[in-house]
Design goal:
This protein has about 290 residues and is an alpha/beta fold. Helices cover about 55% and strands about 10% of the residues. Strands 1-2-3-4-5-6 form a 6-stranded parallel β-sheet. The chain is globular.
C-alpha cells in the first residue's frame, strides 16, 4: 500500500499519507498489532485511528495501542462524539489523547467538554454530510458548526466516506455556507483543516497561501458592481437627473443585482443610450444577477 501510494504521488504530483485504523469490532490486542505495524512504517504512515461503531467496545481498552503509536510520533486519530454524546468525547480525551477526533461534533452538547477540546487544541474532523446520512442530525443546519466555530474549536472539514455517502469535500463547503458561514469564516475553516493535517510543512504553506489568495480575490459581487458602475457612467452622460445623483444611483443598482432578475420589459431607448449591450452583459452573470429595467 505504501509503495503504491508513493508511486501514485510521483505520477500525479500529489502527496499521500496513510492512516492505519483499528476497529472497535475487533479485540484490542488486534489494535496493538496494527499499532506496531503502523509504528514500524512511520513516515509513510502518519497516524493511527480507531473506527467503526463507537457504541461498541471499551474505549479505554485501546489505550495501549494508541500509546505505541504516539511513541512512534504518529498522530492519534480516533473516531468519537458522533453516534454517542459529549461523555464519549470526554472518555476519548482521557483514554486516547487524540490529536484529531473523528467527528466530535457532539462535544457541543456540553460546554465543559467543548472547553476541554478547545483548551487541548484537539482538532475535530467535521463531516456534515455523513452526520445527516447516519441520522445524527435531521438536516445540515442542525449540525453545530456555528457553536463549535464560535467556541474556538479547531476543525477540519471532511467528507468522511464519499463513496458511501455520495458527498465530496466541495459539497461540505457548500453545506457550510448554507449553514451561515461567510467567506472569512470559510477561509478560516479551510486554513484550520490544512494546519491540522499531517502534510509536510512546505505543502501546508503552499495550501495556506492558496486560501489567502482565494479570500483576497474579488468576489462575484465585486465584478457586478464594476459592471453596474460602468453602466451608470454611460447612463449619467445621457441623463441630467441621474448625473445629479450618481453615487445613490450606482449604490441602488448595485444592491438590485443581488436579488432581482432580467426582464424583457426594458426601455430600448435607454438600452441604446447605454451602448446597446446592457442586457447581454448583465445576463452573462446568470439568473438572479441581473437588473429589472422598466
Amino acid at each position: 500500500v505504501l509503495d503504491e501510494a508513493a508511486r501514485a504521488g510521483e505520477r500525479h504530483g500529489i502527496g499521500v499519507g496513510v492512516v492505519v485504523a483499528a476497529s472497535r469490532l475487533r479485540h484490542p490486542l488486534d489494535a496493538r498489532t496494527l499499532a506496531r505495524l503502523a509504528a514500524k512504517n512511520a513516515g509513510g504512515v502518519v497516524g493511527f485511528g480507531l473506527s467503526n461503531d463507537e457504541r461498541r467496545g471499551d474505549t479505554s481498552a485501546f489505550a495501549p495501542a494508541f500509546r505505541i503509536a504516539r511513541n512512534a510520533g504518529l498522530a492519534s486519530l480516533p473516531h468519537g462524539g458522533e453516534l454517542l454524546g459529549a461523555d464519549a468525547v470526554s472518555e476519548t480525551l482521557d483514554a486516547l489523547h487524540p490529536t484529531r477526533l473523528g467527528h466530535g461534533v457532539r462535544s457541543a452538547e456540553s460546554p465543559e467538554v467543548l472547553a476541554r477540546v478547545v483548551d487541548a487544541g484537539v482538532g475535530l474532523e467535521v463531516c456534515p454530510g455523513s452526520n445527516v446520512a447516519l441520522g445524527v442530525y435531521e438536516s445540515a443546519p442542525e449540525v453545530p458548526l456555528r457553536p463549535l466555530f464560535d467556541a474556538g474549536a479547531r476543525m477540519a472539514l471532511g467528507a468522511d466516506d464519499p463513496l458511501l455517502f455520495g458527498s465530496r469535500l466541495l459539497d461540505q463547503y457548500e453545506t457550510t455556507r448554507r449553514i451561515g458561514l461567510d467567506d472569512v469564516e470559510l477561509a478560516d475553516l479551510a486554513a484550520s483543516s490544512i494546519r491540522l493535517s499531517a502534510a509536510p510543512a512546505p505543502v501546508r504553506s503552499r495550501l495556506l497561501a492558496g486560501v489567502r489568495d482565494w479570500l483576497a480575490a474579488p468576489a462575484p459581487g465585486d465584478a457586478r458592481r464594476q459592471l453596474v458602475a460602468e453602466f451608470g457612467d454611460r447612463y449619467f452622460r445621457e441623463t441630467d437627473e441621474a448625473r445629479a445623483y450618481p453615487e445613490a444611483f450606482v449604490e441602488a443598482l448595485t444592491k438590485a443585482v443581488d436579488w432581482v432578475w432580467i426582464t424583457g420589459n426594458h426601455d430600448p431607448d435607454m438600452e441604446a443610450r447605454c451602448g446597446g449591450t446592457l442586457v447581454e452583459e448583465l445576463a452573462a452573470f446568470g439568473p438572479g444577477d441581473g437588473v429589472w429595467l422598466v
